[in-house]
Please model this.
Amino acid sequence: MKMMTYKSGLNISLLAATILLMFGCMSTEPKIIYVDSNAATKGDGKTWVTAYQDLQDALDNAGKGDEIWVAAGIYKPTKKAGGNEDRHRSFYLKNGIGIYGGFIGTETDREQRDWNSNETILSGDLNGDDKDFDNMVDNSYHVVIGDDTDSTTVLDGFTITAGNASFDTWPDDGGGGMSNHNGSPTIANCLFIGNNAFADGGGIRNWGDSKPIISNCTFRNNKVAQEGGGVMNGPGSSTIITNCRFIENSAGEDGGGMYNNESNPQVTNCVFYLNSADLTGGGMYNVNSSISVVVNCSFYKNMAFEKGGGISNKVSDPIFVNSILWGNVAPVDPQITNDGSIPDITYCNVEGGYDGTGNIDFDPLFADKELRLSEGSKCIDAGNNDAIPKGITTDLDAKQRIINRVVDLGAYESVD
Model:
């Protein structure tokens, strides 16, 4: 009789545990949360019709595995952290949550969105009174913060603008558009434009154990008083950057397009065009043992006012392969300058020539401002297939990376 009672109690306990587990699974099932700044009324985020108007409401109510779909419009951060000033308002990313922009507000499938036509803006212009870079004193220090996140955190399909990390001490001195400290979010299909910083990273700053994956993004017209107009990769970071454009970013000191300090970024299929630095490294600056790996990138018409218009390396031995450095401008070493550095440069087209296996010195014959190659360019079929990072199968145009058995130099593959 006692044995029967024991078994019955055990069965009841197992049944109760099973029911609790079922309800627990039901309550944590991933869901889609809808946001539309033009929604008629404040809703619950469960449908487009009842969408949240405020993106922060969606973030506050999202759990791991959820997706937040955001309709075209302008969204400004409302949550403060790190201080009580309004300028401490930022969008704080959360682990396991994907935030997707580019929706009209009627879609039923994420693949139906168009982030190019339906611009979804995250803006640090809290008071709506910006005039380019002339009136940003009251803007958010960081529009987006991705601290302590991992690759399951996704930011996809947004324009990030008007951040102003203008303070002179950490952390509000860098990462105007986005700041990642020990953060490794996945960032895709985004435009970082018109962001500003004092020390480092006008567009994005990555610092500490940060391994963000950045793809198909454009960094345009971001500024910094010191280092890294577009992106700053700081000590400890290992950023992966693929299929991105760095255009017209500027630095008051070094690294107009990108600044790498004690970091090991992998940069593939990228364009660096019209970036500038008041000192060195108009396109890119590598310093303090940074081993940057740069593959199939094009550096053109970048400018430095001292030396290294294209690339500047100081006590760093980066790797450059399948890339083009042409038409960059500086009083000294316009394409590449090295200070205590021995970079490994192979299968590259360098204006003025550069010692190394497979390197050439011919006008690349760019066909357009996107830096695609014209028919007859010596950069066609001149690269090293073995240097292409694992998993890279397309070029900056999302077309096949290798067409005629041998990879082209630069960010694009030519059909001819």
Remarks:
- Residues 1-10, 12-27 have pLDDT under 50 and may be disordered.
- The first strand starts at residue 32 and ends at 35.
- The longest helix spans residues 2-27.
